[in-house]
Amino acid sequence: MATKKAKKAAKKAPAKKAPAKKVAKKAPRKRAEEGCGQEGSEEGRQAQGQAQPNAAFMRPLTPSGPLAAIIGATPMPRTEVTSKIWAYIKKNKLQDAVNRRMINADDKLKALFGKAQASMFELTKYVSKHLK
């Protein structure tokens, strides 16, 4: 009898594989309806994808002391201050040749940083002390 059972087990069909999982389709993006009355509001601009500039970055600040010697004493936004300092660093080739993250200070930058070399990540820390 053992042989009959062995033959029946051998004749059985192999187990069926589980069906492949179906991937859910993403819902289509909703578009802002035209004429909703949100065109001039802040919500309307955000819905349309237009970013509002941050007023804190655009507020003119007056540089003082050693910072004014590098970029001038006229009031300007913080973003423009950073751009002018980087232009000064590039023009005078003050970025370290080996480690590009470090800035080698000349006489003007040494007065700003208080040391001979500073990291580019520390730059805003030193600059913010001289902006009012």
Structural class: mainly alpha
> Roughly how many Å is the radius of gyration?
33 Å
Largest sheet: 2 strands, antiparallel
Number of E-state strands: 2
What's the N-to-C terminus distance? Answer: 99 Å
Count of DSSP H/I helices: 7
- Kindly state the percentage of residues in helix: 40-55%
Overall shape: it is elongated
Percent strand = under 5%
Return the average pLDDT rounded to an integer: 82
User: Taking strands numbered 1, 2, ... along the chain, how are they ordered across the largest sheet?
Assistant: 1-2
- What is the chain-wise order of helices and strands? HHHHHEHEH
Quick take:
This protein is 41% helix and 5% strand. The chain has 132 residues and is mainly alpha-helical.
